[in-house]
Amino acid sequence: MTKTIALSLVLAASLGLAACSKQEASSASNNVANATDNALNAADNAMDAAMNATANVANDAGNAAHNVANTL
């Protein structure tokens, strides 16, 4: 999904660059590259947070099981 968003941004920027001067095109191209990088980083961060949350739930379940076993 993130690749689709990034490619959409690149396509939109490419179409917009057709009417720009070289300096404007370069600036716009850099802005698109930065926006793409930011979107990919945000997606990576969201995935990392989801994986960490899943690991935390698994750890909590394991700790609860150990606590029950230790009380018996």
Would you give an account of this structure?
The protein has 72 residues and is mainly alpha-helical. The chain has one domain. It contains two helices and no strands. The longest helix is centred in the middle third of the chain and has 50 residues, at 22-71. The termini are far apart.
Task: Record the SSE blueprint.
Blueprint: H1 2-17, H2 22-71
Helix pairs in contact: 1-2
Biggest beta sheet attributes? none
Whole-number radius of gyration? 22 Å
Shape: rod-shaped
Structural category: mainly alpha
Oligomerization status of the protein chains? single chain
Could you list the spans in which at least 5 consecutive residues all have pLDDT below 50? none
Tell me what portion of residues adopts beta-strand conformation.
under 5%
What fraction, in percent, of the residue positions are helical? over 70%
Query: What is the tally of beta strands?
Result: 0
Which series of helices and strands comes N to C? HH
Mean residue pLDDT: 82
Number of helices: 2
What number of structural domains do the residues give?
1
- Termini distance? 48 Å
Question: In summary, what is this structure?
Answer:
The chain has 2 helices and no strands. The protein has helices spanning 2-17, 22-71.
How would you describe this structure in keywords?
rod-shaped, single chain, 92% helix, 72 residues, mainly alpha
